[in-house]
Amino acid sequence: MILVKHILEPARKRLAVLSLEASICDVAQSLANQDTHTPLVVVCDSDGIAVGVIAPIHIVHILASAGVDALSFNAGAIMNSRTLPCAPILDDDGRPQGVLFARDVAIALIDEVNYDEKLLRDYVMGVGYQ
Questions:
Q1: What is the pTM of this model?
Q2: How far apart are the C-alpha atoms of 73 and 33, rounded to whole Å?
Q3: Taking the CA atoms of the chain, what radius of gyration do you get in angstroms?
Q4: Closest among 75, 95, 94, 79 to 20, alpha carbons compared
Q5: Where exactly are the structural domains of the chain?
Q6: 3-state secondary structure 53-86
Q7: For the segment 1-32, what is each residue's pLDDT rounded down to a tens digit?
Q8: Which label site among 62, 79, 89, 90 has the fewest CB atoms less than 10 Å from its CB?
Q9: How, if at all, do strands 50-54 and 86-90 pair?
Q10: DSSP one-letter string for 8-70
């Protein structure tokens, strides 16, 4: 069975968290950070609870619709959660833990199937479980 903890380490590396008050420039800088390769910014309230996300496409839409006025927007005004390339992983309290791509889940599923196949093959061949 796949558990989130198996794919959490790479997801944590791409996590970027900002407050509702963060400027659009702060959001853009987080998304442009080459060290984290983050595909989205998780926006949190003052208690650290995730309340939304911002992806690069959201920045593009705001700039296209608001022009230079977009520079006065904060993260709370532009966050959106529709059509995302990935999703944040939240703990039981709603605090962000990482960013998950569909490929992370696919790889974990393939690894699990390969492991189960190995166990079955070993069992049939009389090797037993390891």
A1: 0.69
A2: 20
A3: 19
A4: 75
A5: 4-101
A6: EECHHHHHHHHHHHHHHHHHCEHHHHCCCCCCCE
A7: 556 677 788 888 889 999 999 999 999 999 99
A8: 90
A9: unpaired
A10: HHHHHHT--EEETT-BHHHHHHHHH-TTTT-S-EEEE-TTS-EEEEE-HHHHHHHHHHHGGGG
